[in-house]
Amino acid sequence: MPIVSEEYKEEKKEQILDSAFECFAKKGFQTATMDDIVAHCGMSKGAIYNYFSSKEEIYLDLLTRATDKNFAQYHKHFAKHRTASSKMDYLFNAYLSANPIDRNRLEYIVVFYEFNLHSTRDPDLLQQLHERKRKLVTLVNDIIQEGQQLGEFKSNIPSQLYAERFWTIIDGVNLHAVYDDFPYYDVLRELKEMYLDELKSE
Amino acid sequence: MPIVSEEYKEEKKEQILDSAFECFAKKGFQTATMDDIVAHCGMSKGAIYNYFSSKEEIYLDLLTRATDKNFAQYHKHFAKHRTASSKMDYLFNAYLSANPIDRNRLEYIVVFYEFNLHSTRDPDLLQQLHERKRKLVTLVNDIIQEGQQLGEFKSNIPSQLYAERFWTIIDGVNLHAVYDDFPYYDVLRELKEMYLDELKSE
Amino acid sequence: MPIVSEEYKEEKKEQILDSAFECFAKKGFQTATMDDIVAHCGMSKGAIYNYFSSKEEIYLDLLTRATDKNFAQYHKHFAKHRTASSKMDYLFNAYLSANPIDRNRLEYIVVFYEFNLHSTRDPDLLQQLHERKRKLVTLVNDIIQEGQQLGEFKSNIPSQLYAERFWTIIDGVNLHAVYDDFPYYDVLRELKEMYLDELKSE
Amino acid sequence: MPIVSEEYKEEKKEQILDSAFECFAKKGFQTATMDDIVAHCGMSKGAIYNYFSSKEEIYLDLLTRATDKNFAQYHKHFAKHRTASSKMDYLFNAYLSANPIDRNRLEYIVVFYEFNLHSTRDPDLLQQLHERKRKLVTLVNDIIQEGQQLGEFKSNIPSQLYAERFWTIIDGVNLHAVYDDFPYYDVLRELKEMYLDELKSE
DNA sequence: CATGAATGAGCTTTCATTCAT
DNA sequence: CATGAATGAAAGCTCATTCAT
């Protein structure tokens, strides 16, 4: 019998997560302190510990939610697309339409890839990292196979490998977005064309 | 014991850097403690501070040396190659011949990309990060232009952009090497072919 | 316990300062450790750092408060005195009535003069030292000038110089109080008479 | 059977003591490090430990020598003076002729009084402090008694007390020399006159 | 005797977490 | 639930002293 509504709690949690993200972005997970987060979100230290049991848990929750939100968005948009091509197009465009010099996006990139590397050291997190990656690969693999069945894509290419290659490209491009002189659009656009050319039947 | 040779001191430094690398690989820069490094390299805390003035300096030196060594290796090998094609081949093969599941290589990847992301937050380090990247892009750009002049590569392609694309691909592949089920060879080989196909004159 | 009154916090601060004083008195600022202070005041190390940001800050606050208290006391008592003579008398008596072998007073003397000498090496502290001294000289100078205007004191003496001389004497006597066989009263009483004799009109 | 001559050793010792003095003056005994002294005197750390067994010993030796030199100087000069008056004159003039803003002198003052306060905390050092002070008081006391016997000084004054008073004045003036706007000459000259007036028979 | 690299106890300070109010 | 003062283990770093060469 909770005293406050679930909505209230969820709202509070998101406030904390937003502040935590800002702090992790500015200083990194290890260097950002609970006091930083407290100062940023305006509530008390005790309050935060009512919603999260540790700094690590905030970190985990923050990034789990971010990737979940990502997945949800993908699936939501895919529902609107009829062809595999348009789905692939959508995926590429999700990154092409992103503003590479948007401070918030860069911060997210840094925090996100730092978390991936961090996850490398903890068996449980590594497990989750693999699962998420598998889901991402499957997402693209399904599209490619769909395109192959519908005749949009060449039927003799290894779909799984192409799915892997897609995310390899995306992560490469994202990582380079931290260089402010990186020709993000141009590189990504060309890679997209190169990629789709190989994929599509003549 | 005092009055030791420069070689001795250099050797000591490398011992410390090796131990530090192991510790940073196992726990990350922030989490690894000086005591960890002390325990790993067997010398006393004071001894380490005779060679490096802070944990941060060890970190910086470690990664500066690693990238310098990398550059030196590239330039050394390029001297042996006559054609631009064979140089590009060498570059790709440097990554294709790497064992993606070699523990040491994975550790290096994690530490290296973590350092890049870390550098993002310090103006001085960011500056260095940019410089290193510029040098890497120039390295490839020079090869491509050389190939264009010699008629090996298409003359109408933007060499700079292709150089950027090269490192985007490499970083993407490296980053995915942390997933033990990643088909490292296959993905990289196909990307290499795709990349060189576009580059070479028919 | 949180959300405590300002009084509570002030009390805590004073507890810490009292303990710090004891420790500095016993060992000196540099030699006394935070652990000594922790052990003496019974609270945790973290608690102390909630009230002061460094050992140095404790030292500074301790001595700033002590001298401020001194000034306040002087001014408070001067309000009760009508003549310049009685004010000078009060000043001398403040030192004559002090118990020279009181352990606490001796400790204060040592800590206080050590701090003065310490301040000599830091431009900011030296500045403060000068200001405090100027205020002390002004305090006495004002009294002398007042006495000259009222005809109590000779009008042809340089008041400023006499003010300087007053504190010279006081500091000399204080410093010698650390010698337990020093005839504190006798020396100070004679110096007082000598001093006032020269000051007073016949 | 020492390998090097005593003179050589003594010279080395003095080199070390000079450097140590500079360092203690600049930073204080606790804050100055052996490395500071090493850097200043140009010899190795081990060399210093051949002549002194600890930093504390350097400190002690430094100040013992300084005060011994002082005593020796006094006695040497007193031999030249015939009257008690001229001896007292000499003593006062030793301080009156000192340049109060001479950096070296100020440094000596700070180091010297810091050492006195430091000695307060160690029974052995306190003992030495007392002995030295007793000798200083005796020095002046002897002069005054000599003057009384020769009829130069009033015979009914307590010589011991006057001797105490002398050093009280000197220490007060010295201590104030650290304030660069202190009218050192004027204050000391007036105190001298005041003092001698009381002493001398009409 | 001279050297300076090595030692390691000990220092100040930080900060995730707890819990009395 | 909210608060923020309290905790104390641990962190990075220093430095007087030693001793192999």
UniProtKB/TrEMBL annotation, chains A, B, C, D:
Highest taxon, organism lineage: Bacteria
Residue ranges flagged as DNA-binding region: 33-52
The keyword DNA-binding belongs to this UniProt entry's keyword annotation: yes
Pfam families, per the entry: TetR_C_17, TetR_N
SUPFAM superfamilies xref list: Homeodomain-like (SSF46689), Tetracyclin repressor-like, C-terminal domain (SSF48498)
Protein name: TetR/AcrR family transcriptional regulator
Taxonomic lineage from the root: Bacteria, Bacillati, Bacillota, Bacilli, Bacillales
Keywords: DNA-binding, Repressor
Every HTH tetR-type domain range: 10-70
